[in-house]
């Protein structure tokens, strides 16, 4: 036992935790400051007047009061993005290839988890479980989603990517796009044949929908209760555990060393006795496991899933990976958190700041704008080293 | 079996000699026409007629004969048979629309080697351009969707469509340059994702620009959009000439379909002409150099950014023209016609036919469209018939009646596109009809091996 504890590299456990906290706090502080300054500046203009008329509070107070909720929401979705982004970034690091089908692997994870829960619900198990059991069942669903997604990721690699290794760059990418489309409709087909419907709802059980209330704040005539839902806590904790675990796997274990070696130089790694194919499969497996778990967590948070659920989270996670510097694990964490925050801030405040002309509906293209800006001004990402751009 | 093979080989050898190609082509086309004439709803008859274009393309005959037969087939036989059964004309029109789009995308992906995943954005630009100016939308602007008064005038007359066809080309080309400019430095896979993003941006804009000013009428889309006028004597002339064959008097709506089909054909011919000329011109060779090795191309002094932007602009402009044409033909545009799936559909046509190969891309467009509109639809129809019957799958004892009503093969286009992309990439990355340049390369490679 003592030897076991000795073999754990504490630094590699604490470092990512520290990074996560730093990234979250940093982006939260910066974005809040920007929004608050903007609110102060716009307070006396027509926009401020409109808000005062509607909520009977100045724009600044409105912004300030909504801020904690926005921060929590942003953090939650940010961690989900980070978990998915790790899948993209790991595969890119090892193969220099965008695994376009990762978004569908995420969706498959979500579907497997939700279907298991729905099956348990129809069997009548969910309605009479104790609180502890509810958490147990949720964890079971997460693990089921993880393993399904991991197995799928490995299969996809074996069938659709491995035969194309060594082909020109665009060939595996096109194949990946094909796999992504294929999987979307396969999910739809399987769901259509077995359940007859494509939209699945995450069943309500346990106390996941409850909110821990911190307090109430009056805003003119209405009062706003501030709190955090249990769901969000589960999502954040789950994602943090996964991120720390992955970081440990890659940076502090022998397998992780092999992964890093393959990412750095495949032929040399192979000369050192590393089974490159196995490591690549393993990379897909790990990415798939993370994606699947993120899928179930996403379903828990947003309740409704459909076969195309992976598309936008996938693209945003990719954006996050690029933003952080693709191929860089820490960068993916940073990118995910920053992107989630940015997006939630934009979704919550853009409508107010532009007097309703452009609101939440532009949330989805916000990520693309960031992606394009990052690629133009800092193609290596926030944390990536300056790699030479090969054609 | 061996005898059959021998016979087949002999046939293959002889079919290109003497008067055989002429006989075979004419017989094929005639057989197709007769089959379609007598059973207009049969997919088989349709395929026989459509494949006659390929015997026309493949068999060795002199060019004048090919040209004349092609013109007769495309401009007389197909419109007349199409008016007889309007569904047939609809499919032909769809094929020509997608063939034009695929040819445009082929310039960007096939020649310049830039993977673009948001190609329908350019198509949307053309469609919304004529959609906005060719409808009452200019006067609808102050109203929220669905609240405008009924008696608004049209901004322009329908005949302004023709200048707007040119404007659509220019607008789409400018959009192409605008989108291309910031992303030119990126390497292939990033470019793909960024163009995907741009495609989505255009769709989301079309969906949401109904406020503060109502430009696009939101998700409901713009309708009605005007069509150019069709002079009365054309209708009378068509009825007088072909009325007997068609079998029923042709109304204006059907003849409009013929007109748009012919316009689409003109655009396709223009694209093919431009593409053919560019392929071996300086630009085309520059594109090939960029596609094969960007670093080497820079070293040879090729202005990469300019050439890539040219590819973007030229490829985009055709989509713009097609967009305006489709907006006028459908009298309706809505954001959902410009989804990511459409982009991938066009890409799968190009990949199926062969990157950089003009006949291949046309074949790809025709195949995917027919699969999509006829085979999948037919399969859907068949399944719904089975559902209504009492039939049972024998071994597993499953009654067709219990099959989920959600299972509608016609809606599984993604499955079709995805399968095409994956299978083609794994088994035949050069496409069904590999491009000439690639074929040359393949031949030289194999001959080296033989040495």
Summed over residues and divided by their number, the pLDDT of chain A gives a mean of: 84
CATH class of chain A: Mainly Alpha
How is the main sheet of chain A built? 2 strands, antiparallel
Characterize the overall form of chain A.
globular
Nearest-integer average pLDDT of chain B: 84
Please state the structural category of chain B: mainly alpha
H-E order of chain B: HHHHHHHHHHHHHHHHEEHH
CATH fold description of chain A: ABC transporter involved in vitamin B12 uptake, BtuC
Structural class of chain A: mainly alpha
Largest interface: A-B, 52 and 53 residues
Strand order of the largest sheet of chain B: 1-2
Contiguous low-pLDDT stretches of chain A (5 residues minimum) are 386-391
Q: What is the CA-CA span between the terminal residues of chain B?
A: 33 Å
Structure description:
The complex is a heterodimer of chains A (391) and B (451). Chain A is mainly α. Chain A has helices at 2-7, 10-42, 46-55, 59-95, 102-122, 131-161, 170-194, 230-252, 254-264, 266-271, 276-302, 311-324, 329-353, 363-377; strands at residues 200-201, 211-219, 222-229, 304-305. The longest helix of chain A has 37 residues, at 59-95. Chain A is globular and about 70 Å long. Mean pLDDT of chain A is 84; it is low at 386-391. Chain B folds into two domains: 1-84; 96-352, no CATH class. Chain B contains 18 helices and two strands. Chain B has a two-stranded antiparallel sheet. Chain B is globular, with a radius of gyration of 24 Å.
């Amino acid at each position: 036992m003592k030897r076991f504890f000795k073999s754990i590299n504490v630094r590699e456990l604490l470092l990512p935790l520290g990074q996560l906290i730093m990234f979250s706090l940093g982006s939260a502080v910066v974005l809040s400051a920007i929004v608050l300054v903007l609110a102060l500046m716009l307070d006396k203009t027509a926009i401020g007047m409109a808000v005062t008329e509607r909520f009977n509070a100045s724009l600044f107070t409105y912004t300030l009061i909504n801020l904690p909720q926005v921060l929590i929401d942003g953090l939650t979705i940010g961690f989900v993005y980070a978990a998915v982004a790790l899948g993209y970034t790991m595969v890119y690091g090892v193969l220099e290839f965008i695994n376009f089908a990762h978004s569908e692997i995420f969706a498959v994870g979500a579907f497997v988890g939700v279907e298991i829960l729905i099956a348990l619900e129809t069997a009548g198990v969910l309605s009479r479980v104790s609180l502890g059991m509810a958490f147990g069942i949720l964890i079971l669903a997460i693990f089921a989603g993880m393993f399904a997604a991991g197995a799928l990721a490995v299969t996809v690699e074996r069938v659709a990517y491995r035969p194309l290794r060594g082909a020109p760059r665009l060939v595996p990418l096109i194949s990946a796009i094909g796999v992504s489309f294929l999987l979307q409709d396969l999910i739809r087909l399987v769901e259509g044949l077995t359940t007859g419907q494509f939209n699945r709802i995450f069943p309500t059980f346990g106390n996941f929908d409850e909110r821990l209330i911190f307090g109430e704040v009056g805003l003119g005539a209405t009062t706003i209760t501030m709190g955090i839902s249990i769901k969000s806590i589960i999502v954040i904790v789950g994602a943090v555990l996964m991120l720390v675990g992955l970081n440990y796997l890659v940076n502090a274990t022998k397998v992780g060393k092999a992964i890093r070696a393959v990412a750095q130089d495949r032929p040399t790694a192979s000369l050192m006795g590393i089974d490159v194919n196995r490591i690549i499969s393993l990379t897909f497996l790990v990415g798939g496991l993370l994606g699947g778990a993120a899928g179930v967590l996403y379903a828990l948070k947003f309740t409704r899933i459909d076969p195309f659920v992976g598309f936008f989270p996938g693209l945003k996670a990719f954006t996050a990976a690029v933003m952080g510097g693709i191929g860089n694990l820490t960068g993916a964490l940073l990118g995910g958190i920053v992107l989630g925050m940015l997006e939630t801030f934009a979704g919550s405040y853009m409508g107010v700041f532009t007097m309703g002309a452009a609101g939440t509906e532009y949330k989805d293209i916000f990520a693309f704008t960031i992606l394009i800006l990052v690629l133009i001004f800092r193609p290596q990402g926030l944390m990536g080293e300056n790699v030479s751009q090969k054609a | 079996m061996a005898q059959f093979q021998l016979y087949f080989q002999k046939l293959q050898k002889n079919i290109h000699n003497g008067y055989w190609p002429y006989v075979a082509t004419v017989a094929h086309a005639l057989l197709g026409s007769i089959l379609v004439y007598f059973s207009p709803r049969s997919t088989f008859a349709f395929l026989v007629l459509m494949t006659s274009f390929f015997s026309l393309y493949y068999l060795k005959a002199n060019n004048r004969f090919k040209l004349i037969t092609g013109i007769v087939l495309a401009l007389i036989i197909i419109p007349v048979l199409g008016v007889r059964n309007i569904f047939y004309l609809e499919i032909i029109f769809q094929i020509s629309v997608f063939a034009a789009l695929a040819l445009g995308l082929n310039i960007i992906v096939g020649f310049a080697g830039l993977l673009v995943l948001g190609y329908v954005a350019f198509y949307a630009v053309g469609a919304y351009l004529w959609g906005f100016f060719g409808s009452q939308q200019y006067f609808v602007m102050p109203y929220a969707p669905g609240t405008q008064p009924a008696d608004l005038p049209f901004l322009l007359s329908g005949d302004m469509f023709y200048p707007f066809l040119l404007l659509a080309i220019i607008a789409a080309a400018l959009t192409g340059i605008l989108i291309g400019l910031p992303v030119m430095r990126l390497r292939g896979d990033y470019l793909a994702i960024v163009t995907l993003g741009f495609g989505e941006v255009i769709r989301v804009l079309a969906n949401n620009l109904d406020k503060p000013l109502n430009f696009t009428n939101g998700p409901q889309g713009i309708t009605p959009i005007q069509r150019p006028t069709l002079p009365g004597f054309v209708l009378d002339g068509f009825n007088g000439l072909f009325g007997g064959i068609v079998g029923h008097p042709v109304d204006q709506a059907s003849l409009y379909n013929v007109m748009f089909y012919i316009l689409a054909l003109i655009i396709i011919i223009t694209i093919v002409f431009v593409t053919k000329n560019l392929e071996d011109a300086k630009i085309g060779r520059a594109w090939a150099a960029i596609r094969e090795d960007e670093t080497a191309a820079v070293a040879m002094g090729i202005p990469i950014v300019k050439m890539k932007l040219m590819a973007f602009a030229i490829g985009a402009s055709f989509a713009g023209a097609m967009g305006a044409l489709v907006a006028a033909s459908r009298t309706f545009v809505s954001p959902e016609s410009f989804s990511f799936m459409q982009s991938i559909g066009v890409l799968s046509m190009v990949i199926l036919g062969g990157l950089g190969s003009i006949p291949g891309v046309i074949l790809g467009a025709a195949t995917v469209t027919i699969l999509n509109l006829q085979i999948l639809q037919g399969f859907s129809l068949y399944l719904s018939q089975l559902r209504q019957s009492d039939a049972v799958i024998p071994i597993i004892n499953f009654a067709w009646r219990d099959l989920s009503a959600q299972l509608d093969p016609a809606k599984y286009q993604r499955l079709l596109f995805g399968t095409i992309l994956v299978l083609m990439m794994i088994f035949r990355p050069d496409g069904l009809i590999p491009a000439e340049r690639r074929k040359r390369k393949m031949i030289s490679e194999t001959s080296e091996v033989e040495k």
